[in-house]
Amino acid sequence: MLARPSRKYQLSLIFLVLQRAGQFSTAVAKKDDRLDANGEPRFLEQVKLFYESGASKTGIDPQWLNLIRAC
Fold first, then answer.
1. Is the CB of residue 14 less than 8 Å from the CB of residue 49?
2. How far is the C-alpha of 25 from the C-alpha of 55, rounded, in Å?
3. pTM (2 decimals)?
4. DSSP letters of 25-42?
5. CA torsion sign, 43 to 23 to 39 to 37?
6. DSSP characters for the chain?
7. What are the angstrom distances between the C-alpha of 33 and each of 16, 36, 42, 56, 71?
């Protein structure tokens, strides 16, 4: 059974793929206030990402989701 890669390893792979795809450069990633010193999303950014991921699967009207997001 294979061990699951660490979160830091997963994020570094994502960064590499996006960088190679030309989505953003290392210079932009270092200046990004949404990332911490390790290049990982800050807590609030993670919450936003998880919210968007979950909200997209609910089928709830976007107007209601905007109200929930404001809270």
1. no
2. 29
3. 0.47
4. -HHHHHH-TTB-TTSPBP
5. negative
6. -PPPPPHHHHHHHHHHHHHHTTS--HHHHHH-TTB-TTSPBPHHHHHHHHHHHHHTTT---HHHHHHHHH-
7. 19, 7, 8, 25, 22
* Size of the chain in residues: 71
For residue 44 the two structure tokens come to: 């609030």
Structure tokens at 16: 């590499």
pLDDT tens digit string along 29-48? Answer: 456 678 877 888 888 888 88
Domain ranges of the chain: 1-40, 42-71
CA 16 to chain CA centroid, Å, is: 14
> What does the pLDDT average to over 49-69?
91
